[in-house]
Specification:
Rossmann fold, two-stranded antiparallel sheet, alpha/beta, about 220 residues, 10 helices
Length: about 220
């Protein structure tokens, strides 16, 4: 029996990574421009050094901002700046846009999701991402949000893959059981092992690979 629902990871699954080295260089360039706006002269290379531990920066959730915004605040304070929260909220989107340029929507994503919808298969996005407003903007731009029954982003719900709680939360949004739902993702530990432990079916999807193996599970329905 084919799955009644499919949960997709986002980056590396529905969005394809192109040149990640270029993506991070563009991000570091944007951080250097941000520092310049705050009165500090620096380079992309210097910001890359400052960012070596960026994703280990503490997150307190005291300021009612996303984890990414809080880490940006910590980063700029680390170099001696004192940005306002309003500036951080504006700059966070601009800096994320520079990184997103190296991501493209998988060419098979929309047609496949359309097929799933016509077959009454429920779909969800489950993403570990530290700045959920950015994700929602690009889901809207690419029309992916129109094809989803649920969208779950770690920074919005305060849970992360591979923890069981975030799989449980997503299944509740879909009103489906674990055993009737397929998890598709490119991170074996977070997407696949995490989902398996919670009892979901799984498909390990490598960045840019065809969705044909997943479609084959539904051929009789399409």
């Amino acid at each position: 029996m084919p799955p009644r629902g499919v949960i997709f990871d986002l980056y590396g699954t529905l969005f394809i990574y192109k040149n990640m080295g270029k993506a991070f260089f563009s991000w570091h360039e944007s951080l250097a421009l941000g520092a310049k706006e705050l009165g500090f002269s620096t380079s992309a290379e210097q910001m890359a050094k400052e960012c070596e531990t960026f994703f280990s920066f503490p997150v307190t959730r005291l300021f009612n901002i996303t984890p990414y915004e809080e880490r940006l605040l910590f980063l700029f304070k680390k170099i001696g700046a004192n940005p306002s929260l309003d500036w951080i909220c504006d700059f966070s989107n601009r800096s994320m846009d520079s990184w997103q340029k190296e991501m493209v929507l998988h060419p098979e994503a929309i047609p496949f999701l359309d097929e799933l919808k016509r077959a009454n298969v429920k779909t969800a996005i489950l993403s570990n991402f530290d700045h959920y407003p950015h994700v929602y903007r690009f889901l809207k731009q690419t029309k992916l949000s129109d094809l989803m029954d649920a969208i779950v982003i770690s920074s919005e719900v305060g849970l992360k893959k591979p923890d069981a709680e975030i799989f449980e939360y997503t299944l509740q949004k879909l009103n489906l059981s674990a055993s009737s739902t397929l998890m598709v993702g490119d991170d074996y530990k977070k997407d696949i092992e995490g989902a398996k432990k919670f009892g979901l079916m799984t498909h390990y999807h490598q960045n840019g690979a065809s969705f044909a193996p997943i479609r084959s599970l539904f051929n009789k329905n399409f």
